[in-house]
Specification:
- The chain starts with a helix and ends with a strand.
- The chain has three helices and 29 strands.
- 9% of the residues lie in helices and 39% in strands.
- Strands 11-12-13-14-29-23-22-17-20 form a nine-stranded antiparallel beta sheet, with no helix packed on it. Strands 1-2-3-4-5 form a five-stranded antiparallel beta sheet, with no helix packed on it. A five-stranded antiparallel beta sheet has the order 19-18-21-24-27.
- By secondary structure, it is mostly beta strands.
- The protein binds beta-D-glucopyranose (BGC).
- The site of beta-D-glucopyranose has 9 residues, from strand 24 and strand 27.
Length: 377
């Protein structure tokens, strides 16, 4: 009897050790996420780090599907809006979690000139071009492979965008690598090359809600944006070309402020954007990723920092979410239930010679990095 109890206790202890070991091991699992409209399989990649932080990705649109991080009491929840399967992403029109390209954000009147030649793009946002056109990078199946970088687990997504696709010149070779590491960072590395001069502005369009599981709107979140200036826009959200100081405006987030505190102010820029939908000029952008923004949610204690090599950050407060999207687990995404922090070059740069250039030439290499870093306070 005694011996049986001892061996039973031993078995329980061994099982517990095995579980801890399995949880403590960085890993990637691949599973079925559905099919494209023409029957190709779409995959879901589940990345887990040693802390049990879980990130899921799909090769449809090179999209981030979920990020599950703990609150201050250790309770995990999903801080991204998204869908339960590939069909949701295929039908999506709000760019949930997607890689956006070739040009994230707007190009005025859907046209630009490069080396004296005019290129015409889809006018899919009023008279303007938005997020790469009618079938941008969010509407394609990417090739994906698991890789093992020194600092984490990663999936590398690759696509070839043909010369003339959506009106853009050049055969463009694009690789986007998503890494989860043990610092609870989700790192996105974008690399691209072209065989003709072209313009390019890649970003990720994840909608965050640090309450977890889209438990309410994001107006109580606090945000700090490391920017003394922003690019004011016209009524169609095309920059005027001015770099305006944020000081004295409701766009001043140099000190952390609740998103909801001034969002309904009758400031012309907020009226045009129907809330926050603007590009901030990040202070001291440069070669190494720098802090662009810090988002925190007081109830859960969750914090997310955004670091990037990009010069700009589009803070979009989910103003066009209107309760028509049914997302994960049947959850309906109401007005401002998620916010985007899209690291980027400035909108309409191809038509704004004074903005940092978005031109990529043959022989050149497009290379940017953005990190979403999670913690609690
Ligand atoms: C834009 C919004 C747009 C949204 C589409 C954002 O990046 O700034 O104006 O409505 O994407 O989901």
């Amino acid at each position: 009897m005694r011996r049986r109890i001892v061996s039973l206790v031993l078995m329980v202890v061994l099982a517990a050790i095995a579980t801890v070991h399995a949880e403590g091991k960085m890993r990637i699992e691949k599973s079925d996420f559905g099919k494209t409209r023409d029957g190709q399989p779409v995959d879901l990649y589940t990345l887990t780090n040693d802390h049990g932080t879980v990130v899921t990705l799909t090769n449809w649109g090179a999209s981030i599907v979920s990020i599950q991080v703990p609150d201050r009491s250790g309770k995990k929840a999903d801080v991204l809006l998204g869908y339960d399967n590939a069909a949701g992403y295929i039908a999506d029109t709000a760019y949930l979690g997607a890689t956006v390209g070739r040009y994230g954000n707007r190009i005025g009147e859907g046209r630009f000139k490069l080396d004296g030649k005019e290129y015409k793009l889809a006018q899919n946002n009023g008279e303007n071009h938005l997020h790469g056109g009618t079938a941008g990078f969010n509407k394609r199946l990417w090739e994906a492979k698991e890789i093992k970088p020194a600092d984490g687990v990663a999936v590398q997504m690759h696509c070839l965008s043909k010369d003339g696709e959506e009106g853009y010149p050049g055969n463009l070779d694009v690789t986007v690598t998503f890494t989860l590491n043990n610092k609870n960072e989700v790192k996105i590395d974008y690399v691209a090359t072209t065989d003709k001069p072209t313009v390019l502005n890649l970003t990720n369009h994840s909608y965050f809600n640090l309450l977890g599981d889209a438990a309410g709107d994001i107006l109580g979140h606090e945000i700090m944006i490391n920017a003394d200036r922003f690019t004011p826009v016209d009524v169609g959200l095309i920059p005027t070309g001015e770099l305006r100081p944020v000081a004295g405006t409701p766009l001043d987030f140099t000190q952390p402020k609740a998103i909801g505190a001034r969002i309904n102010d009758q400031y012309e820029q907020l009226v045009f954007g129907k809330g926050y939908d603007h590009n901030w000029v990040i202070n001291q952008s440069g070669a190494a990723p720098r802090l662009a923004a810090r988002l925190s949610e007081p109830k859960s204690g969750r914090v997310m920092e955004v670091l990037t090599t990009e010069p700009g950050l589009q803070f979009y407060s989910g103003n066009f979410l209107d309760g028509t999207i049914k997302g994960k687990k049947g959850k309906v995404y109401q007005h401002r239930y998620g916010l985007c922090l899209e690291t980027q070059h400035f909108p309409d740069s191809p038509n704004k010679p004074d903005f940092p250039s978005t031109t990529l030439k043959p022989g050149g290499k497009y290379q940017t990095t953005t990190i979403y870093r999670f913690s609690t306070k």
